[in-house]
Amino acid sequence: MDKKQARMKRALKLRSQIKKLGATRLSIHKTSQHIYAQIISGDGTTTLASASTNQLELRTIVNGANNIAAATVVGRAIAEKALAVGVKEVAFDRSGFKYHGCVKALADAAREAGLKF
Prior knowledge:
Helices cover about 45% and strands about 20% of the residues.
């Protein structure tokens, strides 16, 4: 099993547990250049809010970097957008990525900005 298959296996396990709960989820995805975050409805059909380092307003702040500082900015932005939509509690879907570095920074920033998970 290669690295991507192992990540996808972890993601599948986590998503099946979240689906059973029917909770609104904060889903993230990271690449070597960008980090993305989405608030997805409990039924999984609608994206309620999104933020990424690829968006123009955040791109100017992070200067194209994909590091912990950029993840923190995205975490704050997604929390603000979620609260504006009326979402206060989410389940954290880390998409199989290990909980450290950028993933942890995004989660901590979202918690500090007011999201509960």
